Amino acid sequence: MSQAADTNVRFLILEELHSLKRSLSELLHSLLEEGKLSLPLTKQFSMSGDMQHLTIIGTTTNPAAISEPLLQRFGIQLFFQYYSPSELSDIIQHTGDRHDITVNDDAADILGNAARSVPRVANRLLFRARDVAVRDAITKSVAVEALGLWGITAEGLTVLDKSYLAVLKKH
Question: Contact at 8 Å (CB) between 92 and 126?
Answer without folding.
Answer: yes
